[in-house]
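can u pls check wat happens w/ siroheme
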Amino acid sequence: MAELTPIERVKNESRLLRGTLVESLADPLTGAIREDDTALIKFHGSYQQDDRDLRDERRRQKLEPAYSFMIRTRLPGGVCTPAQWLALDEIATRHGNGTLRLTTRQAFQFHGVIKTELKTTMAAINATLIDTIAACGDVNRNVLASANPVESGAHAAAYEWAKRLSEHLLPRTRAYHEIWLDGAKVEGSPEVEPIYGPGYLPRKFKAAIVVPPVNDVDVFAHDLGFIAIIEAGELVGFNVTVGGGMGTTHGEAATYPRLADVVGFVRPEQLLAVAESVVTTQRDFGDRTNRRHARLKYTIDARGLDWFVAEITRRQGFALEPARPFEFTTSGDRFGWTEGLDGRWHLTLRIESGRIADTASGAKLTGLREIARVHRGDFRLTPNQNLVIANVEASARAFIDALVVRYGLDAHARATPVHRDALACVALPTCSLAMAEAERYLPSLVREVEARLAVHGLREEPITLRITGCPNGCARPFLAEIALVGKAPGRYNLYLGGDGRGQRLNVLHLENVDEGEILGALDSAFARFASEREPGERFGDFSWRAGLVNAPMRAVTA
Ligand code: SRM
Ligand code: SF4
């Protein structure tokens, strides 16, 4: 029988995620923590990283790498108050690298926190009533919900269900409170993890709730998804999706992105039971011998979808009803102002790569601080690294608009569609897995792509462009119409053919190419698209019809 991966031992021997984290933090001789603890700290919402820009120089100077920690919050549905925003801003400025990073999973990330400040920072985040439990690790991660949740009853319900789902699947160990908040040690009867058990899950697990017609959460990229079904204006339940995921490894055909399958319909009151049966099935049958084969998508493909549905039915004690019709028209965010049913307003801002900082191109951190000081509604992080200033009274709109312009936060009104919708993962210098640049490369890449589009009269064409520094897929690149996936410094795989609705995977078009080759290929594709497209046809659809991509099509049909 194949051996379990080393991380399984670490989890099982960790006394429910405690390990030797306390000792690691207290060790003054290094800026790092012990190796086993680097796996455990993820469950608490943090990753040990080192500044890759400085690696070679520090090696030459015989210094240990410039270690620091990334901290990620758990923020179901991405909602926080202005008071929380101000507190998080202060934490980023005081303990981090002076930036707030909005992620593709509606959370905040802090980068650059050094070990000696880690505990204070974790406690400071917790004091804002936002925690970091299970933001990373082999557990259910931050639960996504369609943004603009107060726009209709269904959006508000989706947000409430995202919070309940996140709470329901939260680890029960008190380790987080003990280690970071000096909580009392648990005495007496041993703690249990009723859903996860001591080995937690074989791998990360991700869930999302979406309200059609905008597939802003990319629901088919998730292990578990719920598509809200609204009939006569009422939320009657959800279609359930299982087995989505993006991560792949270059050159390993046994790893692949997979779109989730729609397996049935449930009533709202059945949602938590279904989620629990999916999670425990993955807990018991997921592959714990190979982390590259451990996500739910591989469990389903190894045993078959019918087996999987029968197993969750047995566990939850009821059958799913047949899936109901649904339709997605776009993925991504809706920018600018929208009015909610209650007469309050929501402004979606474009935040490039989710990075909020004061730089030469604008004082965005300061600007949002000024807005948070006067804003009486809330903030909502979108699943596309953008930000909604939500629940604004009509009378406050002009004031907010003035601040948005003053601090250069009005990119949503100025940027081309391709720029507005583009996503890039963090990549260098903090991500230890990056093979190429992504976030830092996006601005110049977009400028070059825009220039090619303009030549062919396509400047205002909505096209989804996503770039990641490696094939793990953190910006969900395999759903984009154009995707660059990092292979080596300055070299990428180029994918074409997503559908702009998050229902079709793209296909490898060129392998291991540099910027010149990428832009050359896009230029000729745009030229053909401009002259041969059918009315209203999207670039991704044209890529298939024109034979720019040629492979079995993998798409979800409603
Ligand atoms: Fe991710 C690992 C950043 C969303 C798939 N991801 C990482 C790490 C932690 C690198 C590491 O393990 O050392 C990156 C930290 C970079 C840094 O310096 O901050 C990282 N992932 C991100 C974020 C910040 C990207 C962003 O630019 O916004 C996103 C944080 C989300 C959050 O708040 O929780 C982020 N990651 C995603 C997504 C998109 C999603 O979830 O909707 C995916 C693809 C969906 C999926 O999971 O299939 C994703 N990240 C991965 C993977 C590949 C997993 C796999 O199944 O193979 C890894 C690597 C791993 O787990 O081994 C990874
Ligand atoms: Fe890092 Fe790769 Fe994720 Fe980008 S896609 S953040 S390079 S793990």
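The radius of gyration is 23 Å.
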